[in-house]
Amino acid sequence: MLEFPQLLTLDPLDPTVIDLAPSILAADFAHLADQVERAEAGGGTVIHVDVMDGHFVPNLTLGPPLVKSLRRATRLPLDCHLMIENADLFIAEFADAGADWISVHQEACPHLNRTLHLIKQHNCRAGVVINPATPVDTLSEVLDIVHHVLIMTVNPGFGGQKFLPETLHKMKKLAKIRAERGYQFRIEVDGGVGMDTVAEVVQAGAEILVAGSAVFGEGDAKVNAQALLEAARSASFERV
After folding, report:
1. Which of 50, 53, 79, 100 is catalytic?
2. pLDDT value at residue 16
3. Nearest CA-CA partner of 22 in 190, 155, 187, 160
4. First to last CA, the chain
5. Which of 19, 53, 79, 190 does the annotation list as catalytic?
6. CATH 3.20.20.70 for the 19-238 domain, yes or no
7. pTM of the predicted model as reported, rounded to 2 decimal places
8. Nearest-CA neighbor of 239 among 203, 200, 210?
9. I need a surface site. Which of 40, 94, 114, 188 has the fewest CB within 10 A?
């Protein structure tokens, strides 16, 4: 895997550190490199890549060839979110294509510990994801080995869905567990993050914000990213 600069904002204990991860699922693929560049100019620090197989979730999206092309277009870390079955079979391929972070779903990995260690063996940062109906407690035995925990605030499969407020308590619970146990994972959130929801997810404990439509929808991605980050950072000083 190619070597790229790591993020400088990696301290999960600093409540003012917020990273924006623009999700290319909502981008115009005919102008993907340009759109990613605009999102980065607006403050994006991670590029989120949603990988769906049509089995674990009802949609079919991106694969390693696109990740490889995207790797040539940006030096930002690529955050590959695998919404797929049999993730172990594809981890090496995504790592070779240029992924920096790889996250897998608790619900799709019967041997989650092994899968997370496999990601780390391929020199990628390992993340674990849970769907809206999955309790945080199911992650108890892997929180000490992950780089990030991704909370889905919509049911995965399609972009542009409405945020589910009943997921907010999971961020608060994760932040509490991390503080009590001295862990270093970061809290990521994906689904319906926009100007109308960003304050409440940040106040609940989210630090990495995945945003697709809010960045790549109407208007300029740079302007949209700047506005979202400004709102998020203001909210970070009001953590509950």
Report:
1. 50
2. 59
3. 190
4. 40
5. 190
6. yes
7. 0.91
8. 203
9. 114
